[in-house]
TrEMBL record:
Comp. bias regions, Acidic residues: 310-325
Oligomeric and partner information: Interacts with OSBPL9. Interacts with DIAPH1.
GO terms under cellular component: cytoskeleton; cytosol; membrane
Keywords recorded for this protein, A-Z: Coiled coil, Cytoplasm, Cytoskeleton, Lipid biosynthesis, Lipid metabolism, Lipid transport, Lipid-binding, Methylation, Phosphoprotein, Transport
SMART domains per UniProt: PH
GO term, biological process aspect, one: lipid metabolic process
PH domain: residues covered: 74-171
Key word Ribonucleoprotein present: no
Protein name: Oxysterol-binding protein
GO molecular function, one term: cholesterol binding
Low complexity compositional bias, start-end: 15-47, 55-65
Designated gene of the protein: OSBPL10
Location of the region described as Disordered in the Swiss-Prot/TrEMBL record: 1-72, 240-272, 291-326
Family per similarity comment: Belongs to the OSBP family.
Length: 700
């Protein structure tokens, strides 16, 4: 549907499509308008049409980029087209003016009002102009900003004439933007070269903080411009495909199709002359992918089998929950800026070794466990009386799961799991906390922890195990189950990071499956992407992208959209969701709010429910003490690094991290020499996915 410009259309104008009066007039200096197909010269056409009274036959004038070097007064295109306004007013005749030089398509109520303010305007740079069979002689113009004009010409010849003009104008301005981008790249390279040519000592050096910041911000700005250009080029490329229908991109991190010089090299990580304003500074939900943490691979034990984790050894977790904020000490600032200056635009972030002081005191595997901090909501899915209630309960749990996975207000980075690293824990949930009523909001606990059940007879136990099963690519798996409720979840995630200018994006590639054995239902779900923002100042994290939840047996599905903050204004951490019964195409539930704040659910019977994620009861993990953990369990493995981070002794923490890395590199080389493949302990690869070795659905 049309946006503000179309909404401005009120009355006036016929509701029928009359013949478009396409007129070429002198419009000042612009891209050349070469005459095609009829042998009419530009001079004779200008003479014949310069008065503005004569009409040009469709196809007699075609706009194209100027091949000549001089500037001259060129032709603009004017004429009447029918424009779709809305369902109430339908199609209305409007007077359109295509300004080739500005690359703008404007429209007015009629020709007499064309010297007044236009009713609407579209920038054609990066625009898509496509044909449509929705109505006779119809064309659609999709602007790069998302605005859309539905237009109709008087006949097929007139339609093709306008399509040719609009596409030529869009192509010309896209090429001009690409040329400008190349010029900016050259200037940025000169800036970097000038800074790096400075002496290593003296009053002004290449490591001056202001110059390092200048390098970083200029590279980030260049990257943002390149990304915008590549997205425009992507749209144009896709529009040229026969089966393409323009729509919203679902993969917000994916860059496909032709790229500008900078963005293509950014993707391949080969733009060596451009330093990056790295993103990979600090984030809690954004793990780096491999190399900045130990590449340890313990030597496999012959005929090793999964260890039995005794639940009676587990105790309620009393680890500190909050992470201290990053300081602004000058030495830390210098380290970060120096790191930024060494990165290259598009560099693979898995190759970046980060300073120890930005690390969070937990492994990524434990962070996945922290997403399960509301196990009562997960178990409540099994209590739903109907498939509709169960899918809605799962969506409610899904939307509330991400809040507790964060620690502290700032974005810090968890330890990258080592191949073979594992994490075990469990939760105990009182039976009276698992409610089947969907409209009864969970009882608030002021964000405080719940004590859990005193014993298995009084509550349900949810067990969790996670393992790092692959190093290249970095893949984490986790599995949890509740035997009493006959529920289990199996998930595998590959974290893939990408530098995006002033931020870093991390795609969570993979999927999870929730199985309700009592009902024979499987819910397949995906995960959102995560972003570290404001990487040069105070970094923070937001989620973004479209995820899906599908149950093939019941026909229910859900679409969840994590909205990223607009560049200007707008709220942060917004999320919207829609649950649909596909066989009947019925929407049974909608939700909106903030994934780390208040969420409002509206059901198809008119009922509503509000969940405040900040007041939900938090169930502490039950975990074995360090002395009873194996050498490759997360907390035991990282215990010395964590201890020194708590003490604030960054040098000692860095040394412990270095020793750990070196020890494991030796073991890795030994295994490579023996050509011994790595075999995970708890998970088995099946096709492109991974499954737990003894899942609940196989045991029952």
């Amino acid at each position: 549907m049309e946006r503000a410009a179309q909404g401005a259309d009120g009355g006036g104008g016929s509701n029928s499509s009359s013949r478009s009066s396409s007129r070429a007039t002198s419009a000042g200096s612009s891209p050349s308008c070469s005459l095609a197909g009829r042998g009419v010269s530009s001079r004779s056409a200008a003479a014949g049409l310069g008065g503005g009274g004569s009409r040009s036959s469709p196809g007699s004038v075609a706009a194209s980029p100027s091949g000549g070097g001089g500037r001259r007064r060129e032709l603009a295109l004017e004429g009447v087209l029918s424009k779709y306004t809305n369902l109430l007013q339908g199609w209305q005749n409007r007077y359109f003016v295509l300004d080739f030089e500005a690359g703008i398509l404007q429209y007015f109520v009629n020709e007499q009002s064309k010297h007044q303010k236009p009713r609407g305007a579209l920038s054609l740079s990066g625009a898509i102009v496509s044909l449509s069979d929705e109505a006779p002689h119809m064309l659609v113009v999709y602007s790069a900003n998302g605005e859309m004009y539905k237009l109709r010409a008087a006949d097929a010849k007139e339609k093709q004439f306008w399509v040719t003009q609009l596409r030529a104008c869009a192509k010309y301005h896209m090429e001009m933007n690409a040329k400008m981008m190349n010029q900016v790249e050259g200037q940025q390279k000169n800036l970097v070269h000038a800074i790096e040519s400075l002496p290593g000592s003296g009053p002004l050096t290449a490591l001056d903080q202001d110059l390092l910041l200048l390098k970083a911000t200029s590279a980030a700005t260049l990257s943002c411009l390149g990304e915008c250009l590549s997205l425009l080029q992507q749209s144009v490329h896709q529009a040229s495909q026969p089966s393409h229908k323009p729509g919203a991109s679902e993969n917000i991190l994916g860059w496909h199709g032709p790229k500008s010089h900078s963005t293509e090299q950014m993707k391949n990580g080969t733009l060596g002359s451009l330093p990056s304003a790295s993103a990979n500074i600090t984030w809690a939900i954004l793990p780096n992918s491999a190399e900045d943490e130990p590449t340890l691979r313990p030597e496999p034990e012959p005929n090793s089998v999964p260890e039995l984790v005794l639940s009676e050894d587990e105790k309620s977790d009393n680890e500190d929950k909050e992470e201290p904020e990053l300081g602004v000490m000058e030495d830390q600032r210098s380290i970060i800026l120096h790191l930024i200056s060494q990165l290259k635009l598009g560099m693979d972030l898995t190759k970046v070794v980060l300073p120890t002081f930005i690390l969070e005191k937990r492994s990524l595997l434990e962070m996945y466990a922290d997403f399960m901090a509301h196990p009562d909501l997960l178990l409540a899915v099994t209590a739903g009386a109907t498939p509709e209630e169960r899918v809605i309960c799962f969506v409610e749990y899904y939307l509330t799961a991400f809040h507790e996975g964060r620690k502290g207000a700032l974005a810090k980075k968890p330890y990258n799991p080592i191949i073979g690293e594992t994490f075990h824990c469990s939760w105990e949930v009182p039976k009276d906390r698992v409610r089947p009523k969907r409209t009864a909001a969970p009882s608030p606990a002021g964000g405080h922890e719940c004590s859990g059940a005193d014993g298995s007879s009084k509550g349900y136990k949810l067990r969790f195990v996670a393992e790092q099963v692959s190093h290249h690519p970095p893949i984490s798996c986790f599995y949890c189950e509740c035997k009493e409720r006959r529920l289990c979840v199996s998930t595998h995630v590959w974290t893939k990071s990408k530098f995006m200018g002033m931020s870093v994006g991390v795609s969570m590639i993979g999927e999870g499956v929730l199985r309700l054995l009592e009902h024979g239902e499987e819910y397949v779900f995906t995960l959102p992407s995560a972003y570290a923002r404001s990487i040069l100042t105070i970094p923070w994290v937001e989620l973004g992208g479209k995820v899906s939840i599908n149950c093939a047996k019941t026909g229910y599905s859900a679409t969840v959209i994590f909205h990223t903050k607009p560049f200007y204004g707008g709220k942060v951490h917004r999320v919207t969701a829609e649950v649909k019964h596909n066989p009947t195409n019925t929407i049974v539930c909608k939700a909106h709010g903030e994934w780390n704040g208040t969420l409002e659910f509206t059901y198809n019977n008119g009922e509503t429910k509000v969940i405040d994620t900040t007041t939900l009861p938090v169930y502490p993990k039950r975990i074995r003490p360090l002395e009873k953990q194996g050498p490759m369990e997360s907390r035991n493995l990282w215990r010395e690094v964590t201890r020194y981070l708590r003490l604030g002794d960054i040098d000692a923490a860095t040394e412990q991290k270095r020793r750990l890395e070196e020890k494991q590199r030796v073991e890795e080389r030994k295994r490579e020499n023996l050509r011994t493949p790595w075999k995970p302990k708890y998970f088995i690869q099946e096709g492109d996915g991974w499954v737990y070795f003894n899942p609940l659905w196989k045991a029952h």
